[in-house]
Write a structure and sequence with these properties.
With about 850 residues, the chain is mainly β. The longest helix is centred in the middle third of the chain and has 14 residues, at about 465-475. The structure holds 2-acetamido-2-deoxy-beta-D-glucopyranose (10 copies). GO terms for molecular function: lyase activity; polygalacturonase activity.
């Protein structure tokens, strides 16, 4: 998304020179007397035996024996298809740029060369670009740095996962260049970060240790500064900070943006492990040891914390920013986590009279405690006592509840969600699984699609070559490496069961084109994962599916695969529709037309770019999706004016799930700017959502959701009727529509409507949420049950939830700053 929001202006004054004020820990001394409570073991009512275990990374070999990593040694043939420099290098090994990794040589300049060479998109100079992607690879070693490494747009920074390389700061580390050992978007002289924080997409950092222990404890050192947005991830990183009394170190610092996903991070020491604020984020498997405050929440709308382990800290999660008169934190969802040997679990500033009314909303479920003096500490002392011995809090919430009726201002225990056993691991936690990196597979277990004849040059028709490479890899049990490139396809790409496919630099793009995908009444999948009825598993990561030119009949991903007893996954696989070189759907072709009334007859049909982003059919089941962004571009990433110029691209539907069995996990997914809906679930069940996020198309209601896509009853399309009554809310697409479905669990749901025909006046604070009438629809009468949504945040929408067409919750009852927040919504 690309709006700048008022709340951010509070933080824009922040710069590298003005460090975030360090906080005093003295409030611990005011903590209330020690209290003990013991609760029974966690026992969600619907639990029976789970069917699989949450898997982890392959264990790293013992020190000294560092196994080679296939990515380091595979032939490097990835290319930037639409970069005019034919010698442009996608894969960069930092050692080829002069880095020594010997722990003695200052590698700062060499690492920076590896990132910047090739005329790439630099912060402060370039807003965004898709033509200069890079993998910056670190072999094992210790890389000494004396100043910040500055990240560029569209960069994957990857270390050898078999023995994590260490980025070691010198004792005289200079912070004049940036904020942090790695600065994802350094502050410029303008006082703003280099890349617009809500437009900083397509980047990753994984498999590294950031060691700050040489930097004196009293210096406010930062591991990673990461003000980013969708399609970004941090994975498998450790932060080693000073544990000295008075330490000012922090691990990850985020002050703005619209994220995003992070997982498998470990923090040692420091004042704050996490010091973060952003519209929304999904974060899981974070472990904190010996931090003063494990998580300091600066602000948010919604943030989902899953599988968090906090050990030997002073404070677990401080969400009291702003104080009761101006609560900064919209909502926090914390599940399947533990807090141990930490005097204060959570501090909040929410009270019955705090402002804004619905802010500071907190939901937690299945949280283990051990030796925690106070679980929740409020402005006037203990809100929820702690526990000396081990105990579990099944579920507890603080905020606006809509259960049998609402709103009810509620604080206290609540019955936990009824968790379908099919979604759980053996310990009763929701199943989770990190992106496979194949660290223990030898190089000969990989095939390169380019070796097998696919060109990926953006021009050649690669349909045949890609299809046969995928089949060969599946048949021979190999992982298919899709080298960076744009693979133009003119009919469907079929991914059979047992496929394992991995892309490069988030720039391995399947690009549909031509007449096969041109019929709005006869849509075709671009990528079809299994045929209906096929069983098995598929692993697919780090890729993008896109369209080129008008493709009104393109379904980007169709998922038919049935996985039972094992789980299939999509990690960092995104749909990107329009807004990049090669799409033929840029500002030249598809400008916005806010001052022209768009009708079926004057609508520019050459900008109808997809029928649907993703369809999980009746057959598809056992699907794990993590960090998946289905994006219809709202602006041009390769705008020649370097100004993120907005564009109008029409796509019909976002993510449609009609799986009969369900069993689908959505960790850190977002779906944006489709016409009829972003998410729609029909006749399905057992779906876990851990922070989902949507945006309504910016052009709506000009035109509204009735055009250009005809209603397809076979897909249970919502029926909109065109309204000429200007006092009625317009027919914009749904953010989330649930019909005839059960056991739908939303742990963090953000449904945003910022615009009315490209004007944001309708979503400004105090404007009366005028962008959209309704955004979240629960339908199907008694056939829909077991829907639980925690921390629903909406923007610009009058009615936050409707049940069978009747308003359940009005925004006016749940104002929470820029957003409106409901803490708990449950159907019967
Ligand atoms: C910083 O320390 C390194 C040794 O760790 C030394 O080589 C270098 O000269 C120092 N730089 C400055 C600017 O003091
Ligand atoms: C952290 O740094 C200390 C001091 O350099 C070192 O002893 C320790 O092994 C490091 N821990 C990790 C996890 O890197
Ligand atoms: C930490 O430092 C403060 C003041 O600098 C001092 O009062 C306190 O006793 C110290 N704590 C420990 C555990 O050393
Ligand atoms: C959590 O992250 C740590 C650190 O990367 C990793 O060792 C562990 O396997 C992860 N756990 C799971 C369940 O993935
Ligand atoms: C929590 O953070 C606030 C600043 O947002 C600070 O004033 C307060 O002291 C912190 N509370 C604790 C217990 O550290
Ligand atoms: C907290 O304490 C203050 C000062 O004693 C009091 O005015 C306020 O009403 C209390 N708030 C709550 C929620 O108890
Ligand atoms: C559209 O209309 C508004 C107000 O009527 C005007 O301010 C704006 O300049 C117009 N935009 C264009 C692109 O013509
Ligand atoms: C860049 O876009 C902004 C609005 O998004 C506009 O005000 C400004 O004039 C544009 N600048 C250029 C150089 O096009
Ligand atoms: C428009 O809708 C409003 C609200 O439902 C209604 O009161 C009004 O009569 C309608 N106007 C027309 C012209 O139908
Ligand atoms: C239930 C509840 O707290 N409702 C409040 C919603 O917000 C408005 C304005 O902020 C209050 O007036 C209501 O009391």
């Amino acid at each position: 998304m690309m709006v700048s929001l008022p709340i951010l202006s509070l933080l824009l004054g922040f710069s590298a020179a003005t460090q975030y004020p360090s906080k005093s820990c003295s409030s611990q001394d005011d903590s209330p007397r020690f209290t003990t409570v013991t609760r029974g073991p966690y026992s969600p009512s619907a639990r029976s035996s789970p069917i699989y275990s949450s898997s982890s990374q392959a264990p790293a070999p013992t020190a000294g024996a560092c196994a080679p990593y296939w990515l380091e040694n595979i032939k490097h043939q990835g290319a930037a298809a639409f970069n005019s420099d034919s010698t442009y290098q996608v894969f960069r090994n930092v050692k080829d740029f002069g880095a020594k990794g010997d722990g003695r040589t200052d590698d700062t300049a060499a690492i920076q060369r590896a990132i910047s060479s090739g005329n790439r998109c630099a912060p402060g100079v370039c807003q965004s670009s898709t033509t200069t992607p890079a993998v910056v690879y670190f072999p094992s070693g210790t890389y000494l740095i004396s100043a910040s490494i500055i990240d560029y747009y569209y960069t994957q920074i990857i270390g050898n996962p078999n023995c994590l390389p260490t980025i070691l700061a010198t004792s005289n580390f200079s912070s004049t260049r940036g904020l942090g050992l790695l600065d994802g978007s350094p502050y410029q002289s303008t006082g703003k970060t280099g890349f617009g924080p809500t437009n900083t997409f397509f980047r990753q950092v994984r498999n590294l240790i950031f060691d700050m222990t040489n930097i004196p404890a009293n210096i406010a050192a930062t591991g990673i500064h990461w003000p980013t947005a969708q399609a970004t991830s941090l994975q498998n990183l450790a932060f080693n900070m000073s544990s000295a009394n008075g330490t000012q170190h922090q691990g990850v610092f985020i002050e703005e943006g619209s994220g995003g996903f992070m997982t498998d991070l470990v923090f040692y020491g420091g004042l704050n492990g996490f010091n973060v604020g952003n519209q929304q984020f999904t974060t899981r498997n974070l472990t904190f040891h010996n931090c003063v405050t494990a998580i300091n929440q600066l602000w948010d709308w919604g943030w989902t914390y899953k599988s968090i382990s906090i050990n030997n800290c002073q404070v677990g999660l401080n969400m009291s920013a702003g104080g009761p008169d101006a609560v900064n934190v919209g909502s926090i969802t914390l599940i399947d986590s533990s807090i141990k040997n930490t005097p204060i679990g959570i501090t909040t500033s929410r009270t019955t009279t705090s402002k804004p009314d619905a802010a500071g909303s907190l939901y937690f479920e299945n949280v283990k405690l051990e030796n925690v003096r106070t679980t929740i500490f409020g402005t006037n002392g203990t809100i929820l006592a702690g526990s000396t011995g081990p105990s579990v809090i099944d579920a507890w919430s603080d905020g606006h509840r809509y259960t049998s009726n609402g709103p009810v201002e509620a604080r206290g225990p609540i019955s936990p969600s009824e968790r379908p056993a099919t979604l759980l691991d053996p310990s009763g936690k929701y199943y989770e699984r990190s992106k496979p990196q194949y660290s223990n597979l030898p190089l000969h277990k990989f095939l390169s699609v380019r070796d097998l004849g696919a060109r990926g040059d953006g021009a050649t028709d690669d349909t045949k070559a890609l299809n046969s490479a995928i089949l060969l890899a599946a048949k021979t049990g190999k992982v298919l490496f899709i080298d960076a490139g744009y693979y133009r396809v003119t009919s469907t790409i079929y991914i059979p069961p047992q496929s394992r496919i991995v892309g490069e630099a988030l720039s391995s793009v399947i690009l549909s084109s031509g007449s096969f995908f041109a019929d709005i009444n006869f849509p075709q999948p671009v990528v079809k994962v299994a045929l209906p009825g096929e069983r098995g598993t598929v692993e697919w990561s780090d890729m993008i599916v896109s369209t080129s030119g008008p493709q009104p009949g393109a379904i980007l991903i169709e998922w038919n695969l049935a996985s039972y007893g094992a789980v299939s996954g999509m990690w960092d696989v995104h749909a990107r529709i329009g807004g990049f070189v090669g799409s033929q759907l840029q500002v030249e072709q598809c400008p916005t037309t806010p001052n022209i009334t768009i009708t079926a007859s004057n609508l520019d049909t050459s900008c109808i770019a997809a029928y649907m982003s993703m369809h999980v059919t009746k057959f598809g089941t056992g699907l794990y999706m993590e960090n998946v962004w289905l994006w219809t571009a709202d602006h041009d990433l390769d705008d020649a004016r370097n100004n993120n110029t907005q564009i109008t691209i029409y796509t019909g539907r976002g993510l449609y799930i009609e799986s009969e069995r369900g069993v689908i996990w959505l960790y850190g997914t977002s779906v944006e700017h489709h016409s009829k809906y972003q998410y729609q679930f029909a006749d399905t069940r057992s779906i876990f959502m851990g922070q989902i996020q949507t945006e309504t198309a910016y052009y709506q209601p000009n035109p509204d959701a009735t055009i250009p896509f005809p209603t397809n009853p076979a897909l249970d399309d919502p029926v909109f009727s065109y309204s000429t009554n200007s006092t009625l809310p317009a027919n914009n697409g749904w953010g989330l529509r649930i019909l005839r479905s059960s056991s739908i669990l939303g742990y963090g749901v953000g449904l945003y409507s910022f615009f009315d025909d490209y004007s944001t006046a309708c979503s400004q604070p105090g404007a009366g949420a005028r962008c959209q009438g309704t955004i979240f629809s629960v339908e199907g009468g008694a056939l829909t049950y077991g829907v639980s949504v925690y921390n629903l945040n909406t923007v610009g929408t009058r009615s936050m939830v409707t049940r069978d067409g009747v308003q359940v919750a009005s925004f006016a009852d749940n104002v929470s700053g820029f957003v409106d927040t409901i803490n708990v919504y449950r159907t019967e």
